[in-house]
Queue: 2 jobs
Job 1
Amino acid sequence: MAVERTLSILKPDATRRNLTGAINQRFEDAGLRIVAQRRLRLTREQAQQFYAVHAERAFYDDLCDYMTSGPIVAQVLEGENAVVRNREIMGATNPANADKGTIRKDFGESVEANSAHGSDSPENAAIEVAFFFAQTDIAD
Ligand code: UDP
Ligand code: MG
């Protein structure tokens, strides 16, 4: 299995509750390396663009409101099978359905405020990493 990179976001519910370190510990304990990290506040336009794939979904406007409601931490995680591995560590989209010991089960507040984002494929990971980071921002 090749070393991959994936885009992770610690969402506004996580930064609001000061969970950045606790969540990062989960990634590092699982062998994923944080090779780039930046705290920022998304503009409405950026949130809409990032989640454009969901533009037709009923939850899209609320999701864009939520993602701009506070700072986020965007990060690049690197490791073996990082895309799938990160999604395992995060757990199911809805914290109510997530396995014990996952980030979303342990920290998520709701299906919307579920603490973390992770890319869903290597192809999307490349697009999402480039959304936030230049190659020169990433140091492995
Ligand atoms: N979301 C929501 N309501 C839903 C489904 C998703 O508010 O019914 C939000 C949630 O924050 C989720 C994001 O939209 O993380 C993107 O949805 P997706 O289906 O891509 O889930 P993910 O890939 O984040 O698990
Ligand atoms: Mg998704």
Job 2
Amino acid sequence: MATVIDGKAVSAKMREEIAEEVKEFVEKHGRAPSLTVIIVGEDPASQVYVRNKEKACIQTGIRSEIIRLPADTGEEELLCRIDELNGDENVNGILVQLPLPDHIDEKNIICRISPKKDVDAFGYENVGRIMTGEYDFLPCTPAGVMELLRRYGISPAGKECVVLGRSNIVGKPMAMLLMHGNGTVTVCHSKTKDLSSHTKRADILVSAIGRAKFVKADMIKEGAVVIDVGINRDEDGRLCGDVDYEGCFDKAAAITPVPGGVGPMTVTMLLKNTLTAAKKQI
Ligand code: BQF
């Protein structure tokens, strides 16, 4: 029987803490920290994510603005918008919702955001800072995972940590943060041979591959901590993670559900980054 790592509950508590800090910020500076989100096109999942972020801002008293642009917006137009927001002292955080339409080069866009306002921490400067450990912001999903581990008293120090997936947004920074936490880290990916031989050794397994119920009970060690970053649809169209939650539940020591695990934490860490950005910009 595993402990359920309840990201929804931890998020709710953290949002209360953040709301308190936002209140203090307002009392001190006479205005709220502010986040601007740009969404290009109509991708339904992105629309949901942006709405989640907007609701979370409202919950905590952070001022949010959503800029909705049509799918055929040109790269130049988008770069111009970012330049405006970079120069607007009433905007503390800028986030461009990914993925962008194919005709826009994501890297160009992300790197145009001022590093001080880059609350996703996807730009080169913030990515570099993650490597050296001298960071102001961490990418929201890996930061959310670390916060969950902390709040459940799980330390990566000296543990075998296995990360499935090597994306710039989750897998790579996740590995880095576990390393900073003194874990012994293995990163597995689509070209990894004998995946199970790695996952079975994991004390802490973090899956970020985007394949529904891919991680089965026979792939994990008895007593493992299993963190599921995946957001997929199963055969019945229901939201599910990368991990076969029911199958792994009895074998794991602790496990995150989907929904209600890492997802809400991702949004909560964005709030935290926005507050940090606002404080740094005083
Ligand atoms: C939950 C995201 C993949 C690609 C781009 C709560 C979110 C999700 C799930 C959410 C995600 C995933 C976000 C739950 C933001 C997390 O209850 O389980 C919140 O809104 N997320 C994103 O902005 O871009 C993504 C996943």
